[in-house]
Amino acid sequence: MNSFGHLLRVTTFGESHGPAIGCVLDGCPPGIAIAPEDFAHDLARRATGKTRHTSARHEADEVEILSGVYEGVTTGTPIALLIRNTDQRSKDYSAIAAQFRPGHADYSYWQKYGIRDPRGGGRSSARETTMRVAAAVIARKWLAQRGVTVRGCMTAIGDVVPRSHDWSAVEDNPFFWPCAEQVAELETYMDALRKSGDSVGARVLVVADGVPPGWGEPIYGKLDGELAAAMMSINAVKGVEIGDGFASVAQKGSEHRDVMTPAGFLSNHAGGILGGISTGQQVSVSVAFKPTSSLRLPVQGLDVDGNVVDVVTTGRHDPCVGIRATPICEAMLALVLMDQALRHRAQCGDVGEVAPRIAGTTSITDAKR
Amino acid sequence: MNSFGHLLRVTTFGESHGPAIGCVLDGCPPGIAIAPEDFAHDLARRATGKTRHTSARHEADEVEILSGVYEGVTTGTPIALLIRNTDQRSKDYSAIAAQFRPGHADYSYWQKYGIRDPRGGGRSSARETTMRVAAAVIARKWLAQRGVTVRGCMTAIGDVVPRSHDWSAVEDNPFFWPCAEQVAELETYMDALRKSGDSVGARVLVVADGVPPGWGEPIYGKLDGELAAAMMSINAVKGVEIGDGFASVAQKGSEHRDVMTPAGFLSNHAGGILGGISTGQQVSVSVAFKPTSSLRLPVQGLDVDGNVVDVVTTGRHDPCVGIRATPICEAMLALVLMDQALRHRAQCGDVGEVAPRIAGTTSITDAKR
Amino acid sequence: MNSFGHLLRVTTFGESHGPAIGCVLDGCPPGIAIAPEDFAHDLARRATGKTRHTSARHEADEVEILSGVYEGVTTGTPIALLIRNTDQRSKDYSAIAAQFRPGHADYSYWQKYGIRDPRGGGRSSARETTMRVAAAVIARKWLAQRGVTVRGCMTAIGDVVPRSHDWSAVEDNPFFWPCAEQVAELETYMDALRKSGDSVGARVLVVADGVPPGWGEPIYGKLDGELAAAMMSINAVKGVEIGDGFASVAQKGSEHRDVMTPAGFLSNHAGGILGGISTGQQVSVSVAFKPTSSLRLPVQGLDVDGNVVDVVTTGRHDPCVGIRATPICEAMLALVLMDQALRHRAQCGDVGEVAPRIAGTTSITDAKR
Amino acid sequence: MNSFGHLLRVTTFGESHGPAIGCVLDGCPPGIAIAPEDFAHDLARRATGKTRHTSARHEADEVEILSGVYEGVTTGTPIALLIRNTDQRSKDYSAIAAQFRPGHADYSYWQKYGIRDPRGGGRSSARETTMRVAAAVIARKWLAQRGVTVRGCMTAIGDVVPRSHDWSAVEDNPFFWPCAEQVAELETYMDALRKSGDSVGARVLVVADGVPPGWGEPIYGKLDGELAAAMMSINAVKGVEIGDGFASVAQKGSEHRDVMTPAGFLSNHAGGILGGISTGQQVSVSVAFKPTSSLRLPVQGLDVDGNVVDVVTTGRHDPCVGIRATPICEAMLALVLMDQALRHRAQCGDVGEVAPRIAGTTSITDAKR
After folding, report:
1. Do B113 and A274 touch (CB under 8 A)?
2. How far is CA C300 from the centre of its chain?
3. Which ranges of chain D have pLDDT less than 70?
4. At C352, which helix (H) or strand (E)?
5. How many other C-beta atoms can be found within 10 angstroms of the C-beta atom of residue D314?
6. Which of A159, B141, B145, D151 could pair with B250 in a Cys bridge, judged by C-beta atoms 3.0 to 4.6 Å apart?
7. Do B75 and C30 touch (CB under 8 A)?
8. Domain spans in chain B, listed from the N-terminal domain onward
9. Annotated binding site of D for NADP(+)
């Protein structure tokens, strides 16, 4: 189960400290222009080692296109992408090879397989998500040709939340933070956190604009269902919301239901999805990230023989793994949307809307959050 | 995409007011004793028309076993279950056949398919979930033979939350509420809500005890990922959490990570899943339900020609659709667990744990919530 | 694994002598007109009890549409079809419940599942194929709207082969035989065979005309690969050929390769498929059926305790099971083609041919066989 | 659709003359010892350039293990294998980039995708099958631990058939020919063929010994159905048979049915499969290969503008592509068997036979052919 998607199918492979990581993107339409340099921007946004607020591991993340592209254009055959791992430091992890770190997949992998690759978390490392971002570069190109764009930002780091929301601020700071005036404050917050040896959780919002109504497959291929699975497959994710999410619990029906007018929807509590199918409004997804479990703070753990041991993690880790997760969440949103778009085209054709389209169905009330 | 599960595969069919609903459960191991009367208990828990707090529609929900069972025992071939619809009142819905109700799948289905069955919501009705509960009866039997049990309760109705948590209270009130002393209060609350013509959201907690470590498939078949998709596929769900869920955002890593001792885990913030694989602790999932959109309160809507119309829904509806959702969430949890159990057996065999098992890995700290 | 198809997905259920057989057809485009009476013609072609040359079992085979069709038109939701079994005679089979009939699935089902439904072969009966024919009625309607038609005939019964090939003769005799002058001879042959208590094998040819170039997915979803699996999934099939099939073994490359001219292909040794993708020529598939193993002739067998027993099958059986297989092979061809058509539309759009189309690519050399 | 298998899942990528070919083997059980040198033997058997009877292209075929193996043992995570292409000669093919070679996938790929990689056939080249052989090395190891072995041989080259059948002769000649005394004759035959510029078809037999009864999933995941799809997915295959295959057509039921005795089956017309499930006898599959279409003999073709052109293929090609196909067919048999074995373990457990096992169910009558 290292693949996802039904028609646009992503298969990833590789361990944190193995020779390489890679992916195969299958089912991609022919005719999309792709060059090795197309991957640089999004991979850099996800990469560690760029600022002091993420892991110090430095990866060049140079993508080699092994197949599926001829003379710069996709051919419809599987696209294999490969990135060599270049900054592995296996020695960082050797001490804990026989230990189970609390909050880590060490113990569960060991229980499942009876063996684990301890180098940097092996397959359970967030290193794997690099390939999702790479694959999504192609999906984003295809979606953009259809007017669909995907973006994301942080909406909480620990207990800090944005005081205002300005999309244009997001790419100008290392936190994907939508409120410029808070950035200095966050720098201080993160510096103190890093010094303390502890970590915090985070909340990420990703949205898609321009999604036409009709994408999504009831009942078990619902757009929101697949988004939930896609987001939950990212390391450290503990919760997913569509639209108002858990806030819906305390709402009244008369408040939650989004009224339609010829001029558009008057609100977007639904997050752009009803009955598992896009409505034409902005699709919005929120994702909860737990705090990193790899801390310099010692903690009691077990070794593989069941003995109590002191676990101290000295490797390079993110004090807030959620920060770099923004481009990963965007990638998963893009990949799910493109897969659903292809499935919609298969069943219902390309003819577009069949009912009167509500004006401005994309983002009249482009959620304030 | 009316199927889910990889080895234990559920396919459902049927519309709210069509002749019947049904499902096919494929991949079920042979040798499980099943009788038609086994379905009654769980279906009654989910059924409408039992108390004044749910829709007045009365369905007998008698299950006919059409295949896959010989002399009372599953044979390994597909099990088809059929329930005839008996209390359809198509007239309730005829007035709104050409209207799009705000907050409903009416509009998105119309946009996708260019046609919709307006009778009781057609395929988008929660009527479909009956078959998930039926299919899960078989899964729960199989899981119980392995010591795995599944249960659920409400943890919020609107802004009301339980003052205490007592599992033994849950089945003694119509709200699956874990705090007996609040039941009278809830009755009053719901009566007032029903009279107002409005609705509220809800929050459901489902847990599985006895799950051995090792179930779940990284990366894209993670146990939590599949649970998220399964829950999000239920009508009206807008959010899913594993373990501490969104509360993890504000936590520190030193607080969130669950410490292991030879006597067991000291906490269960993770909700029993690390790296997508069960740890042996209690698996816990929380689900957010939006308030029902079908209200007696009039609202502005559009008709299929784009004209503004007044929408008044006069059919039978639930003022809090989340109430009946508890057994549905339980069903999805059971079906996902059994599918993962079979997949684990396929890849890793039946031999059980390979590492020293932590004592009492199921529910040492059976979450207080 | 009681489902097949990737986008157009057929799931069947039911045993030979259970209460009912049925299927769910998922992924079907909306807007196809379907009425219960549409199924009668093809089901009658497949049915037993129509002539003395097939099993005497008489089944009414009345199809009930349980879902997915509203006001006579498909809605895009799953279409469930149900047929009640009406002429079960369990007593015919009781004697052999504890025996393994040579050449039957009795023994292999028992070994796999440890249990089997002995009534009429249970799930392994060709009764199941009824639902494939029913599902294909819908596929054939959709294909016909695109100019694609499917037909079939017998090309061998035992060692008898057609002396000439006339498609117009096929539906006028009970053997789907393409040479009218041989029909009386075949009647005599089959009467003698039936009296002898023995059975023979058969060979069926099915072809599709009007298939545009481009359908089929390399590498593991090749059109020919999926046709091979589809045909081999039919009871009693032991071989499948595309185009010249096994005759290709002794051919030279200069003889086998089909020359293209602006006026069309000059031959069709390939059977309309190159590289797993349709060429626009007639798609042709040949299928080998083994002789029925249920014979009145006694044979030595084993019982479930390993003892040698005399097996005499007294039930109603076909002396040449291949005869009724013609409409079944047609059904599988239609279902595979429609699934591939949807997949092609998903990846490559509906725009049709991109290269200069060879004139008359459908059936210039409509193979002589 | 560049993946196959349900639990043991193979995804391949790469073009004939691209930078590399590779595969991802997902779902593999942990604990299998694998080293890079394990691949050499089987890859050499499949490779071109070893004798004058196959294409002169020389590929080193050195396998790099990119993931899924830690300290020489599989970990249960996806195993990625990579082979760099080293002997591409794009110039060989440049002349025909704008032409459609008769009998090739050139035309159908062009029609499907509107673009094709003309270098050496691109994705449609048999170069892709290298990765199937590589993946199967791992499957064969796992099967061997369970007593299951796979082997294959040629049973026809053009119109030449073996005069006798001796498995021990097969690996001692470049034709996988089971009759040593014919080898010199075949050398002469092939030399003459190569000189003539023409090619011939071939027939390959692959068998599996030691397969326990019970593997295979009715109805649409039948062992024989999946074998048919697997074989038909190999380049140039036009037909597949199980057991007696097309010879069954002319057989009587009394002749075809394999009689069971406490000492074993008395024959194996079924080829080890009944009802889609293995019987415990030798599984046997025959595969028909068409003659290579790439000939030095000129032929009329079309160019992409629809003009008639003379096509002369001057690249390096096999005069009988079927020769090297023997290890490829073996690979597909092994991969399908292992996938089915895992699926059987999932549904029915590992406990083995449930009914009295017939003595010597593997290969009492190890088919004479």
Report:
1. no
2. 31
3. 48-49, 56-57, 87-95, 315-316, 350-369
4. none
5. 12
6. A159
7. no
8. 3-348
9. 46, 52
